[in-house]
Specification:
The protein is α+β, with helices and mostly antiparallel strands and about 270 residues long. About 25% of the residues lie in helices and about 20% in strands. The chain is elongated. The protein binds a DNA duplex (16 and 16 nucleotides) through loops.
Length: about 270
DNA sequence: CAGATGCCCTGGGCGC
DNA sequence: TGCGCCCAGGGCATCT
């Protein structure tokens, strides 16, 4: 579901499309989507009339700057959230599960659609939210290998822990571990220097390539970009959701196990314990 | 500190 | 055709 590459794809298009636009009206019908606010009405009045500035991202959070204000509009898509930019005069009817609509000064609508309602949209201090997160996984200064060596927890858990490094979820943690040839249950502290380096490089390469391919849309996945289009990164997956298929490196069948309540895919041969 | 489990929630797929 | 069941997983709370 939306992880760093998907959120970054949306961020880039959102920044190009909505920076400088005024939010002339807001419709918030999904109470749960704006649950950080006292009420949908309070959310609407906190946002209406503001001009959107730059769109930034940290981990899986989108941060839309608001002109002349310390607070930002923050969006987290969680499992099934989508941000869709829709034009038309009038715009076509909103689909089911549309919880928040921002009406822009050029007549377009920015819609937050989220069937499972885990996602959220709120106006608040980005510092307060982002200070709880580790460094962004795609920040050039982030050395993921060094970060995980500081803990004895398992690699997969560390990669998915947003307080350690922000932006990696279940799909890309499997892909990163496959590329780094590391097993999911290795303790972070057990990595030697060359293994840590492989992990750092794999994080950057896997995520950058997925961004270039505009994110992963799996068959049973909700992810769509700002224009409702699918991403092409799923075809580049080497391990995730490829159980029983031959490992592209060594032809051993990819295995699927349950780990911490999630499906995890790995090659039992070339991601072996040392 | 490390790890496991359950919860929030809907849609899709499957077996019967 | 339809029903019940399981699965998908991001983040958080709670337990051992």
């Amino acid at each position: 579901m939306p992880e760093l590459p998907e959120v970054e794809t949306i961020r880039r298009d959102l920044d190009a499309e909505v920076a400088g636009r005024r939010v002339v009206d807001v419709v918030a019908t999904g109470e749960r989507s704006v649950r950080r606010h006292r009420s949908p009405g309070e959310f609407v009045s906190s946002l209406r009339g503001n001009v959107v500035e730059r769109v930034r991202r940290h981990g899986k959070y989108l941060v839309l700057g608001l002109a002349g204000r310390d607070e930002s509009l923050l969006v987290h898509l969680r499992m099934s959230g989508q941000l869709l930019l829709v034009a038309g005069d009038p715009p076509p009817p909103a689909p089911r599960h549309t919880h928040v609509v921002l009406i822009l000064d050029d007549g377009r609508e920015l819609r937050f659609v989220d069937p499972r309602t885990f996602g959220e949209v709120f106006v608040g201090s980005s510092d307060a939210v982002l200070s709880a997160l580790g460094p962004d996984a795609l920040d050039p200064g982030t050395d993921t290998g060094a970060l995980v060596r500081a803990s004895r927890r398992r690699l997969k858990d560390l990669l998915m822990d947003q307080r350690v490094v922000a932006g990696i979820g279940n799909i890309y943690s499997d892909e990163i571990l496959w590329h780094a040839r590391l097993r999911y249950d290795r303790p972070g502290s057990s990595l030697d220097g060359s293994e840590a380096r492989r992990l750092t490089v794999a994080v950057r390469q896997v995520l950058a390539r997925a961004v270039a391919l505009r994110g992963s849309s799996l068959a049973d996945e909700q992810y769509r970009d700002l224009y409702g289009r699918r991403g092409d990164a799923a075809a580049a997956h080497r391990a995730f959701a490829r159980a029983t298929e031959p490992c592209p490196r060594c032809a051993t069948p990819i295995e699927r196990i349950r780990h911490a309540g999630r499906s995890h895919f790995f090659c039992p041969r070339c991601q072996a314990l040392p």
